Amino acid sequence: MGDLASGHRKSTHDMTSDARQHCTRNSRRVETADPMWETEFLGLKLRNPLVAASGPPTKDFAAIRRLSSAGIGAAITKTILVEPSVNPQPCLHRGPGFFFNTERCSTLPLSQWLREELPRLAELPMPVIASIGMTADEVSELAVPVVEAGADALELSIFTPPDDPGPMIRALHTVKEKVSVPVTVKLSCNVPDIVAFGLALREHGADGFSSIDALKAGLDVDPLSGAPVLMEQGYGRISGEAIRVLALYHVAMLNHYVGLPVIGTGGVMSGEDAVKMLFCGAQCVGVCTSLILGGADSVRVLLAELADAIKSSGHRSVNTLRGRTLESIQFPVDEVARQEYEHIIWDGVPRVALINQKNCIQCGKCFSVCPYGAIRNAEARFSVLPQQCQGCGLCVSICPVRAIDWELADEQER
């Protein structure tokens, strides 16, 4: 599988002539991109890699237009259904380091999307991807009229058991038979092996992915009353900062093993977070929670932070840094090791920590947290005892001024 994935990752995705013509129409209306931002997703031209993911910030034309005016690269509509949803009240909650939601899909009638929202969205200077759901029968009914109304591409949001991509595959087949625009699939991390899902969907014609969807599920309570913060619903999907590390992992795995373009989504709250997603191979970076909390103005902030983060990384554009993290990961070659890392035999380089005395501010955090007693506090300075250091990395990650780095285990002169 490793050889197959590596070869596939270098290949370009084939599109029908109809799809290419559709993308050409899109490129004619998109504003000229700064070379730093130049991004393409399945033939769609984006002025930058930021994509408003499906959710409250993309609930209708007015909301998406605000994001467009603020500079977002593309938008994915709130999921359009044959029959509109009804949301619980309350359905959104901000907690410390996480975000809860029990929102359903679009509350607008299909007729409003087809007659008003999508035709107006088609005039914006950026691609608009329509999210449709939630079953194969429903998306079969939705696909053609939604594309005819102005969508540049489709994202399938499908009810799927955690161990069976079958419903996604059936939905994908029925939609691909009817439309020529790119069709992506939203993937959840609530499956035992997202790579297996991705490979199955690639085999059956998926053009790309949005990954990951919000994590199901979490519960928080009021510390005084004991009532759940989401009241009658009780629990909700988790997004925001809490799922960022999961999103980065899944984006990296999809890029390495599956090789189709990914809109990396989940926990992107800053420009630095966006750069991490690009480093892991995301073609575009999906944002939702940050838009909910910061509104359209957060787009400008994210773009400014992203520009600074790109420059700080030593790169000149999103295209030169994309996927660099994948070059440093020892991806397992079999499915068992991929699903459980303890089966992987580590053959890396033995290391020990080293404290740079010029940069150390004597805060003592490394001394306090070292589980192996390998930090010495003597003569008004902290230093590492190489014979006791296990190379666990905790002190490196916790140092507030990056005064601790690595040294090869056989180069222990201090």
| Secondary structure tally, helices | 15
Q: Tell me, briefly, the overall form.
A: globular
Strand order of the largest sheet: 3-4-7-8-9-10-13-14
Output the structural class. alpha/beta
Terminal-residue CA separation: 44 Å
Largest sheet: 8 strands, parallel, barrel
What's the CATH first level of the largest domain? Alpha Beta
Count of structural domains: 2
Radius of gyration, CA atoms, in whole angstroms:
23 Å
Strand content: 15-25%
Structure description:
The chain folds into two domains: 2-328, TIM Barrel; 349-408, Alpha-Beta Plaits. It is 35% helix and 19% strand. It is built from 15 helices and 18 strands. Helix 3 (61-70) links the parallel strand 3 and strand 4.
Quick tags:
eight-stranded parallel β-barrel, 15 helices, alpha/beta, 414 residues, TIM Barrel, four-stranded antiparallel sheet, 2 domains, Alpha-Beta Plaits
Task: Give the secondary structure arrangement, pairings included.
Layout: H1 2-10, H2 17-29, E1 39-41, E2 44-46, E3 50-52, H3 61-70, E4 74-76, E5 92-95, E6 98-101, H4 110-121, E7 128-134, H5 136-148, E8 153-158, H6 166-176, E9 183-187, H7 194-203, E10 208-211, E11 215-219, E12 235-239, H8 244-258, E13 262-265, H9 271-279, E14 284-287, H10 289-294, H11 297-312, H12 318-321, H13 335-339, E15 351-355, H14 365-369, E16 375-378, E17 381-384, H15 394-398, E18 404-408
Parallel strand pairs: 3-4, 3-14, 4-7, 7-8, 8-9, 9-10, 10-13, 13-14
Antiparallel strand pairs: 1-2, 5-6, 6-12, 11-12, 15-18, 16-17
Helix pairs in contact: 1-8, 3-4, 5-6, 7-8, 9-11
